[in-house]
Amino acid sequence: MSDEQLTILVTGACGQMGNYVIEGVVEASDMKLVGAVDPAGRGKSLDEIVPGAPEDIVCSGHLAAALAESQPQIMIDFTTPAVVMDNIQAALNAGVACVVGTTGFSPLDLQVVERLCKKTGTPCVIAPNFSIGANLMMKFAAEAATNFDYSEIIERHHEKKADAPSGTALITAEKMAAASQRPMREVPTAHEELTGVRGGETEGIHIHSVRMPGYVANQEVVFGGIGEVLKIEHITTGRECFIPGVLLATRKVLELQGLVYGLDTIL
User: Cα separation of 60 and 67, whole Å?
Assistant: First the structure.
């Protein structure tokens, strides 16, 4: 990377993560915030939305127009599953690299993004979780999966999270299955009084989703063996924990090719 500042546009500027991302970009000496998009803040000076943000940046409600006007190198997206695919398409078609923390992608969605990256020659990083600790948790869970036959995942998030289970839980299960090269053993339940009480299931791993105020983004991976239980838990106390990972991906993305999925590939 050159000594010049990276130019950044943030989508989802009015959201909680958008606020933290803007603060992180503004404080980073090697980055320059040039645009912000969020229909909820349309027409407002950005410092009205995020104190300390540049007052000369006006929040836009239309991404394509904001991309054309601000000409960023990189778009950082923390929006919703309903709009993220359109945002990525608009950015990649404009030759703008993407760093995406929005979750809820299907395998087909990822294939579409991968094809768009190749077609436009523009890179994109999508990470279900930008926390350094969460990515280490996934790494340790994958290692433990090679030595245990039984496991379940319990993920706990705030009440406004749009998707369930979390992308972190799904990718954790995928990494565990890939590491062990076999599904976990299922524990049959003779009778379920409540449908779905055992949670969702993938690769023989039951995933339980909790949604309520008080949580940010927590995950516990539980392994059971003869006479012992191993718990690997990551607890998030504030959304600011995601910003070092977001900034790391932002600094690296222009050096990458195609679609890169997961922060661990950069770590």
Answer: 10
Q: Which of 119, 160, 161, 231 is catalytic?
A: 161
Q: What is the pLDDT of residues 1-33, one digit of tens each?
A: 446 899 999 999 999 999 999 999 999 999 999
| 113-131 pLDDT tens trace | 999 999 999 999 999 899 9
Amino acid at 151: S
- Domains of the chain listed by start with CATH number: 6-129+240-265 (3.40.50.720), 132-235 (3.30.360.10)
Extract the runs of DSSP E, i.e. beta strands, from the chain: 6-11, 31-37, 74-77, 97-100, 124-126, 150-157, 200-202, 205-211, 217-225, 228-234, 259-261
Which is catalytic among the residues 44, 157, 175, 234? 157
Q: Of 30, 28, 24, which Cα lies nearest the Cα of 242?
A: 24
Q: Does the annotation count 158 as an active-site position?
A: no
The answer to whether the beta carbons of residues 54 and 46 sit under 8 Å apart is yes
Q: How far apart are CA 176 and CA 137, in angstroms?
A: 11
For strands 31-37 and 6-11, give the pairing.
parallel
- Cα gap 145→177, rounded to integer Å: 7
Report yes or no: 100 and 88 within 8 Å, Cβ to Cβ: yes
62 in active site: no
Nearest to 124 by CA among 264, 267, 259, 266: 259
Structural contact between residues 226 and 244, judged by C-beta atoms closer than 8 angstroms? no
